[in-house]
Amino acid sequence: MASAMSPHAALPRIVITGAGLTAPNGNDLETFRRHLLEGVSGVVPFETRHMGAVVAGVCDYDEKRYQSRKARRRGTRAGSVAIYCAHEALRSAQIEWASIDKARVGVFVGTTEHGNVETENEIASLREYGDDTKFWSHHHNPRTVANNPAGEVTINLGITGPHYCLGAACAAGNVGLIQGLQMLQLGQVDLALGGGVSESIHTFGIFASFKAEGALATHEDPTKASRPFDADRNGIVVSEGGCLYALERLDDALARRAPILAEVVGYAVNSDAADFVLPLAERQAQCMAAALDSAGLSAADIDVISTHATSTPQGDVQECRAISEVFGGSARVRVNNTKSFIGHTMGAAGALELAGNLPSFRDGYVHPTLNVDSHDPECGLPNLVVGAPEKKDRIEYILNNSFGMLGINSCVIVKRFDA
Known about the structure:
This protein has helices at residues 29-38, 69-74, 77-92, 116-127, 140-144, 148-157, 172-185, 204-212, 250-255, 281-295, 313-327, 339-342, 349-357, 360-363, and strands at residues 14-22, 43-48, 52-57, 105-111, 163-167, 191-198, 238-239, 241-249, 262-271, 304-306, 334-336, 365-366, 390-391, 397-404, 408-415. The chain is of the alpha/beta class. The two termini are 15 Å apart.
């Protein structure tokens, strides 16, 4: 095979050297992975303003590990998640932070609905004071600007290189990684922190909107509420979380003898240009095909497909049709879904779901999909792994799907790295 991004073979190869995350069922990659293999869900009962009892994926990480109490109080939940993930990614990558040129580090964070919770909180607070705006927080503007989570990381870590957030709906986790890769290949940075974060569960509006659409999951057992591909699925479990990757050029990583989790060998992003909410299988298939082409691979080369499937009746069917179109009856590929464990972490979804599958290169297992008690015949997929992990002799390539509202599709392909 040609070097990474084969249509542009002269570009530097990019590798993942660290992963920092918090998920509803784990605050580091080792725990997250173990719980995916053991079938441990992170979906729990949750109370939200104006909505009462719902189910959600809730993170329980140490907010004060890398932030002072004052900094956390001034900032945002999304910023806190991003700071935690950034530090954990640097630790995972075994980077000697004191010796790094901070002007050559970039932070690229995918997000969805950041800022809504801060505005909702201010409005709720204002009502206690007769709508007198003198009680409106002077922190509101920096809390709600689109670059907040990435910007909070740079302040916390003293990074003076570029930072911004990428609004790519629920494809944002993949897009943040892709942006970091591109900035490395352009020579704009020497180290990129890329991925996605979400504080979705802290805004009642997202629950209310999904409920109004008929797309909010319900179940008497919260751990069974997220059930992609199941005939009885009834909607999305809203969740929070984050995952940022330390990305480096391969030569730089080898020079410092860095741990290498995977090589990013292909990607694609496209648009449905069709509907605000309903996905289009044709464009999703084109996105996967374009990612394969960028990696110089065929469908028969892929070992694992990490699906986006959100447990919505129509959305799951569309993705299954797209996968079937591209992969047909591939005997090699195995298919799984991480949202069945943690719900939909929105802007973090693509990055977290890729992270959950990366250890497959080392342990050889494909983690299962939970809660497929009655497989919907319209969601027919080649080799969907259900219930228990499946062991393979060797896993070489993982394809990670992540799609979002307004028809944005993203796909990332990573490869096992053998020195």
